[in-house]
Amino acid sequence: MTARRARRITRTIKRVALYAAALFFTLFAVFPFYWMFLTSFKQNRDLYVGGTVTSHIPWIFNAPPTMEHVNLLFQQTLYLTWVKNTLVIGAVVVVITLILAVPAGYALARLTGRWGERLGIGVFLTYLIPPTLLFIPFSRVITVLGLQNSQWALVLVYPTFTVPFCTWLLMGFFRSIPRDIEDQALIDGYSRISVIRKIVLPLGISGILTATIFAFTLVLQDFVYALTFISAVPRMTVSLGVPVALVRGDVFYWGSLMAACLITSIPIAVVYNLFIDRFIQGLTAGAVKG
Questions:
Q1: Which of 5, 168, 236, 256 is 20 to 30 A from 36, comparing alpha carbons?
Q2: What angle do CA 128, 167, 204 make, to 5 degrees?
């Protein structure tokens, strides 16, 4: 009885520790969204320390919520225009990325010997080059092409880091597809193009979807290239337009800033949550040999 009771206590302690850790990381992940929500709807007298609210507790509403900051965002800035620009640029970049990354990822995944792995690592290493080292030569190229202050400049530059990353990501997915299926289709009379179109792409659709979401997210979060190539406010993306419009000298419109961040980040967070298992599959596929 004593040994059985000790094992039961140990299992209970482990379960409590597991749930406590899960709760901690859940709160850690949710807290930024909660803080953005609070800041977006707090009155200014409740938002800033030293306001007119007598009992100020920062993580709750001490005064009734307000829509003032949201109204400022939608009525006194071009937020919807920036969102539209981001969606259009992101869609074009995603199409270009998939056209280049899908065949490259498949070719590297099926390349036998060490060269496939080495080339894959080399492609991924190009993604790790900091944008601060590249925006100066890129600005020269954009100036020569006459695309300065044009959204086409971003369409041209963004694939330089979305294609390497998505190529490396898709390599993992295509490596997880058994080669025997393709060999059997070739024996049955399919051409290589037919094998890719009818077998590989349908089986790798989860990887293609993952690459699509990652490419769009990389476009959405960029600030350096957008700041370098775009100066006209109506042509800006959301990552550039929001701070430009809502940070005026030493005055920060925190409520509207947090409202913009909240509205922009929630759809991305939902999509990531829905496809988190496929993201993990893409990052780990092909990592185990044999």
A1: 236
A2: 145
